């Protein structure tokens, strides 16, 4: 029978350690021995050091039945153990082999039972003592609230239970860079708390083994590895030691530990949601082994952490999350009008920043950018949206380091971190965080962690703390912040849809009103063309016919009177035609509104009408008028018509007086589906009118008095109404017979006015 060792003799250094097959080293640590037994109970693998324990060499054991070497009783005990629940538990089998007491750990690897035996601890701690320590720890654990406090307690408790010189709770980030999150060590040792270590210190295949095997022990860092032998009956025969307790460690790891002066280690994996969250790393500065009970108690410490990670992290974030939820609740409960101007109020609401603890926010919709806080320029925001689209990011995206994805924004400290959400076809919303310059303390200079000699690359032996300044990244976005932005994005999307639907509804309603009024105008124009315009024509025809029939006998004075009457009729017809032309020329000019100072409009109107005002001995009093969104020349025409109307219908019993008042500050005025922000009131002391005429007086060619009593076409106030409709406003009238008339005009909102509470 031919026998060979399975030792992996490939030269390992830092240039190839990421590919080192550490799960099949082919050797073990010498504080125990290893047997690999087939399912037919033949010894197929054996460590060289069995002779140290039994005086029987590995060559004598290989290929033999287990019972032939250790006896039937021992085989039956192991069989019972492997078939029972204990085989899956943490407790090793205590057994006598050839007169010596051992503790045996057994696991299966590729159809082979792997038996790892260590001499039974003589002065090992009683299970009751370990249990007592665990109960005490649980009682203290319940008094902690934060994850950091719990990890500090675990570090202290693990050191008390195991007796190691240093115990660290090592936590990984997303890239598996490590941080010493908690620590308890001898007072004479330099603390490592807060130090960071690069992901290369624990390569990927080592992390995989930490997930498979939760406990790793190195009893003596200066150990000489013991080779494993097997029966050479097939090519490439090997033994996977991923779950082994005695597995020999990578020479790179051993070299690293020697460089920092460590004599023995215990490592316990912290698995959270199936991923390697961190490690409990125990260092001793001399040789050290611990009993199975202490190993179990140490593993329980790791279980305490992993079982509490979600709870403690939630508790750590609870207060901040509460603030975020409150801000989200306040934001979603804002009383907003269904108008596009409400977007400005939303973006200015402090809660929009608070839901993500952001420094800036921008809503991009309908080719307009709304911003609040510390944000990039409009051009940069547009560029960012384009870049996101170019990478097919059409729904959601977040990062705390924008330069990793879009290098062109590397130097912009205003937005190192972003949360992006789409508003569907209605736009985008982006939250921003500025660059947060931070200092990271590494366990050594990353540039000096590798040394090169004739045999290749090796771990460095300089462990002076190295400080690194990190730039171009913001603080990390918390999951509850991301969730809050996603949730509010849905609310904002719905608001934009409502605005769009409301605008469409208002558009159709306005068109319906315009159509209705246009039909009414056409009817009135048709009526005036068949009545009011024909009446002066008939007069002209009658007068001229009479003059022609009496041409021989008519006197010069009679001709003069007749021609004067013809002239009046012609002037009246000309005036009617001119008013109709003015009325039909007024179009909807809402899209061209601009800021108009009504004080200047009133001043120029009074100057233009000074003769008429003086002729009527009228008094005009006014207070300061606002600046409104309107069209200047239409406002002059409006003021002229209103003042002319007051002068025309002045009372004969008193001096005409017109008082003009106005809202001094913007104030939101709700009226059905419309919102106005300013009003101006013209109050006169004229003849007034009955209240039930308050609507009809604005209809074209409507007159409350006969032509003989008061001249005019009846178009004046109709023109006023059409002007206000054209600028998106409204006009109303209030009257009391014999006391006077009030004409009130309402103006549309400036976008800035929507910042008012609604």
Automatic annotation (TrEMBL):
Keywords: ATP-binding, Chromophore, Kinase, Nucleotide-binding, Phosphoprotein, Photoreceptor protein, Receptor, Sensory transduction, Transferase
EC number assigned by the record: 2.7.13.3
Catalytic activity: ATP + protein L-histidine = ADP + protein N-phospho-L-histidine
Gene3D superfamilies linked: 1.10.287.130, 3.30.450.270, 3.30.450.40, Histidine kinase-like ATPase, C-terminal domain, PAS domain
CDD domains, per database record: HisKA
Superkingdom of source: Bacteria
Molecular-function annotations in GO: ATP binding
Sequence ranges assigned to domain Histidine kinase in this UniProt record: 528-751
Location of the Phytochrome chromophore attachment site domain: 146-303
The protein's enzyme class: transferase
Family the UniProt entry places it in: In the N-terminal section; belongs to the phytochrome family.
Protein name, entry field: histidine kinase
